[in-house]
């Protein structure tokens, strides 16, 4: 099949060509719909996969979200802590007495171990030689002192929480270490939206494909196919991505079609999914405790624990402190205190992990996030979600356009191999054929 690069086809030529190549013409809208749909799938998946770089040398690909886990995570958490989660507010919900009650079993075990260890340091065999009533009395005093120590510890942390807990560091570190969690978080905000983007590619592709069919009939220029393929990918991606957020409020089009930006229309569902993933995967008690105990403020936290334990020991010995020092020696007394602090700090991670159920109930993160997000204005709500998509929109549009152009070029190859030259027009003298173009 041959075609003129510049000339417009005459009506007889168009009819003759359609008669022998009708299957090619009729396939154009459907191929364009396929291009619109498939390029959306590829573009969306390229956001998230593969999780790690795959390729040879510098040539390869890694999902945009996993590749920029630090930046995406940092931006997301920054917006969250500004609009939804105030760490100070969350810590206010932790009650010292309730926390100690929730930790009764692990605390009792810890107190028993620490009491025995300290007694052995004072004099080997001392703890076992004490009567049961004596051992219980010592443990009872420690148990009674524990809520006060915990309350004092919480008050100091509340006064300067960023010094001990860096929520942004904790969340970003978690997301970078667990890129699957970041992907899950991002997908929770856009799963239904991305399904809409994929479907919209079919509709836009069909419409543009019809235009492509007429353009091909008129010009039969080999550049039409890749140009329209590029256009299908570019235009459908651009419109679909904007339809995620615009219009903010429901708006009527053509007098009877009501439409609202999809992420606004599905705000309630997106909020629920988003809150659940944040509470379960990003700010679960286990991750929070691990971040607190291993984060940049961990040393300061342990120092604070040591300070409170020292204060509790001095409070318990009270006016008898000089006599105790005289009995065991000042140096040994200080060494005993240091040893006790070390034991408490060593037991802290294990003990805290036992408080997960209480922490989950006290913090109630999932419902807190849902409640906070429901109070946001449409603009504030969008400010949390839009940056996640905004950075990737040009990439998605570019990928869709390029893939569309490639498929369009493949169409040209197929037409060259399977297209037929209309015999009636081909048999005309060259001069007549030229006149038909005029």
TrEMBL record:
Keyword tags: Membrane, Transmembrane, Transmembrane helix
Transmembrane segments: 20-44, 196-217, 223-245
Top-level taxon of origin: Bacteria
PANTHER family: UPF0754 MEMBRANE PROTEIN YHEB
Name by which UniProt lists this protein: DUF445 domain-containing protein
Species of provenance: Mycolicibacterium diernhoferi
């Amino acid at each position: 099949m041959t075609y003129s690069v510049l000339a417009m086809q005459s009506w007889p030529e168009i009819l003759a060509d359609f008669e022998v190549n009708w299957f090619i013409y009729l396939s154009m809208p459907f191929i364009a719909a396929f291009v619109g749909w498939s390029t959306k799938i590829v573009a969306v998946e390229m956001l998230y996969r593969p999780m790690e770089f795959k390729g040879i040398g510098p040539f390869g690909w890694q999902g945009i979200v996993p590749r920029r886990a630090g930046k995406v995570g940092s931006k997301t958490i920054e917006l969250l802590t500004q609009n939804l989660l105030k760490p100070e507010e969350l810590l206010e919900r932790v009650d010292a007495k309730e926390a100690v009650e929730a930790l009764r079993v692990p605390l009792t075990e810890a107190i028993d171990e620490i009491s025995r260890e300290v007694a052995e340091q004072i004099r080997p065999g001392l703890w076992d030689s004490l009567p049961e009533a004596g051992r219980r009395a010592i443990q009872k005093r420690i148990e009674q002192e524990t809520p006060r120590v915990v309350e004092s510890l919480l008050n100091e942390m509340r006064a300067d929480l960023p010094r001990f807990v860096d929520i942004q560091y904790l969340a970003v570190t978690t997301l970078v270490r667990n890129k699957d969690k970041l992907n899950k978080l991002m997908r929770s905000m856009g799963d239904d939206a991305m399904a809409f983007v994929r479907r919209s590619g079919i509709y836009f592709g069909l419409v543009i494909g019809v235009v492509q069919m007429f353009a091909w009939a008129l010009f039969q220029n080999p550049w039409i196919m890749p140009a329209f393929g590029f256009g299908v990918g570019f235009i459908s991606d651009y419109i679909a991505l904007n339809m995620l957020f615009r219009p903010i409020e429901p708006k009527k089009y053509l007098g009877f079609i009501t439409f609202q930006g999809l992420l606004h229309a599905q705000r309630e569902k997106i909020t629920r999914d988003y809150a659940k993933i944040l509470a379960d995967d990003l700010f679960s008690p286990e991750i929070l405790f691990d971040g607190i105990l291993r984060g940049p403020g961990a040393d300061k936290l342990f120092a604070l624990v040591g300070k409170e334990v020292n204060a509790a020991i001095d409070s318990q010995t009270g006016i008898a402190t000089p006599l105790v020092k005289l009995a065991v020696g000042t140096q040994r007394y200080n060494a005993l205190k240091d040893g006790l602090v070390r034991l408490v700090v060593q037991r802290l991670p294990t003990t805290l992990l036992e408080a997960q159920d209480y922490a989950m109930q006290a913090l109630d993160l999932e419902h807190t996030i849902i409640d906070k997000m429901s109070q946001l204005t449409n603009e504030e709500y969008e400010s949390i979600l839009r940056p996640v998509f905004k950075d990737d929109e040009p990439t998605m549009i570019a990928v869709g356009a390029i893939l569309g152009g490639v498929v369009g070029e493949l169409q040209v190859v197929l037409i060259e191999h399977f297209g037929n030259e209309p015999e009636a027009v081909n048999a005309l003298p060259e001069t007549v054929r030229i006149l038909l173009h005029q």
